[in-house]
Amino acid sequence: MKKILLTTTGLIALGMAPAIAADLGARPYTKAPAAAIAINNWTGFYLGAMGGYASENGDGIGSISGGFAGGTAGYNWQMGNVVLGIEADAAWADIGARVGNPAVAAVETRIRDMGTVRGRVGYAFDQVLVYGTAGYAWADNRLTLSALGASVSDSKIHSGWAAGAGVEVMFAPKWSVKAEYLYRSFESQNYFTAAVPGGLATGELNLHSVQVGVNYHF
Fold first, then answer.
1. Phi, psi of 3 (to 5 degrees)
2. CA separation for the pair 204, 211 (Å, rounded)
3. Which is nearest to 139 in space by CA: 200, 194, 70, 195?
4. Res. 5: pLDDT tops 50
5. What's the rounded mean pLDDT across residues 150-164?
6. DSSP state at residue 196
7. CA distance 13 to 21
8. What is the rounded CA–CA span in Å between residue 157 and residue 1?
9. What is the pLDDT of residue 24?
10. Region of residue 62 (left: phi > 0; alpha: psi -120 to 50; beta: else)
11. Which of 208, 213, 210 is nearest to 56 (CA)?
């Protein structure tokens, strides 16, 4: 009886094997779903253009103001939601003021170029980046003295610092727009040192500036 049971079981197993093999072969192969890819990643190098308006810290006579426009370059590192970066910008500027009449007597000061090199620390809400920034700032200023239609000028580079905050939005793949506020503080410089003993000191120069820009991310 034992031999009959073993023989019967073996025959049943042999009969089922082709069916099982056929069933396994008929099942379609399903590829595992691809891992989700983050659409907005701030890591990488970028170039951009920017422009804005700046005015001196004060509303008195001779307070300077004007516009500027230029370019930006930077690099970001994103770690989770935290974004660290370094950014440099340089701009042509027309920020100045004149006191008096050049035909009689006048003093004019005008920033013609300026820029910054700053660090950035931000927090990314997907495609929106909110950040603070601070670093080195410089400005190329020209001082002009006029009297009776004649004038003399001297130019100096003012060094200082800048600090502020901004918001940047990734509105399309590789493209972002930003709005930024910067407070710029420049050290005093002495002008006309060759003609005036000790020169003419300008005093510290402080600017409030707002700017907007667009960046392309590589």
1. -65, -35
2. 22
3. 70
4. no
5. 94
6. S
7. 12
8. 109
9. 46
10. left
11. 208
44-217 placed in CATH 2.40.160.20:
yes
Exposed e or buried b per residue across 155-185, where buried means at least 16 C-beta atoms within 10 angstroms of its C-beta? ebebebbbbbbbebbbeeeeebebebebbbe
Distance CA 32, CA 37 (A): 15
Region 68-92: what's the mean pLDDT?
A: 97
Instruction: Name the region of 202 (left: φ>0; alpha: ψ -120 to 50; beta: rest).
Output: alpha
Place of tokens 């004149």: 98
Q: pLDDT: is 167 or 5 the higher one?
A: 167
- Alpha-carbon gap, residue 4 to 184, rounded angstroms: 99
Provide the residue ranges of all domains of the chain, joining segments of one domain with +: 44-217
Supply the pTM of this predicted model. 0.77
Using CA atoms, how far residue 153 sits from 108, 174, 180, in Å, is: 9, 45, 33
DSSP state of 104: T
Which token pair is 194? 């060759």
DSSP reduced 3-state for 17: helix
- Report d(CA 33, CA 49) in Å as an integer: 40
Q: And the tokens for 138?
A: 């410089």
Q: Is the pLDDT of residue 73 over 90?
A: yes
Model confidence at 57, pLDDT cuts 50, 70, 90, reads confident
Q: What are the tokens at 55?
A: 């005015």
Rounded CA separation 29/117 (Å) = 55
User: What's the whole-number average pLDDT of the chain?
Assistant: 84
**pLDDT, mean of residues 7-27:** 44
